[in-house]
Amino acid sequence: MRTRDAVVAEGSATTPSQDAPGAPVEYAARTRGLRKVYGGTVAVDGVDLDVPAGSVLGMLGPNGSGKTTTIRMLLGLTTPTSGSVELLGRPLPERAGDVLPAVGAMVEGPGFYPFLSGRDNLLRFAAMEPLLPSGSVRVAVADALERVGLADAARRRYRGYSLGMKQRLGLAAALLVPRRLVVLDEPTNGLDPAGTREIRRMIGELRGSGTTVIVSSHLLAEIEAVCTHVAVLSRGSLLAQGDLATLLEAGGPALLVTTPDRDAAVTALLAEGVSARRSSEGVRVELTGTSAPRVVAALVRSDVEVHEVRRERAGLEDFFTQLTEGVSATTEGEGP
Q: Where is this region: Disordered (predicted)?
């Protein structure tokens, strides 16, 4: 697990900036010591974030954890109180003009004119796209509306759009041209299950094309379904980050043993010094200090009938809960 201490240690090796336009980078986004203070409130405190190029990173955290503030600083929308930001290999805000045209974003809900149609709003956005030739604006807008499922509602006024339709139009604005990095803040907010599946499909397509995606969401199941990496924030601090599969494995590798005699299996394993307990599906065996072959051998020696043995890992919800509850308990236990 990459905890905050581990991240800080790794931060000593900085990634060199790339000067050639479109040059490959190891990290699509990187921060060091990122901090934001509003008055007497610390919104973000010393965040060292690494977003590997080509990844889909899910940014998780309870309300008020600093997710949106961190995203706004990544995009140059908010100036950090201290710390540094590197986007596509270049420092912000110094090189913002070089990299921001290659970044698409939907943050804190899209902002459009309520009296204009969805198409006309998107035409205004497209006219300001530095990477979009003027002769290609109308085709790009039509393609983007089709891509997010709004072609049939393109001439309706924005004020008449549902929340889900507004989210789709915001996503269309972010995808008017091919991007190297796409940042989506709560992209499934207001969407029905079909719309959520479409967002998942589009994120998969973006990753398949080599685009890096940052997704902020409170829907853990969606993050687990689409993301390759996660970063967990709480109370402005980064608790853990890294490859999703690796983090979940580190959260407690275990075996699930299917057997008709769960009590005998638990007794046999405890006698061998192996941690085991009954579960709704069979017997859950902790692999700390042991191995799958040893577990199976212990059960066979005790004449326990084994139908199936499979590797089990913690789910993202369990991992997230353990991290955030641990922070809450520590904070509550601190003195004044």
A: 1-22
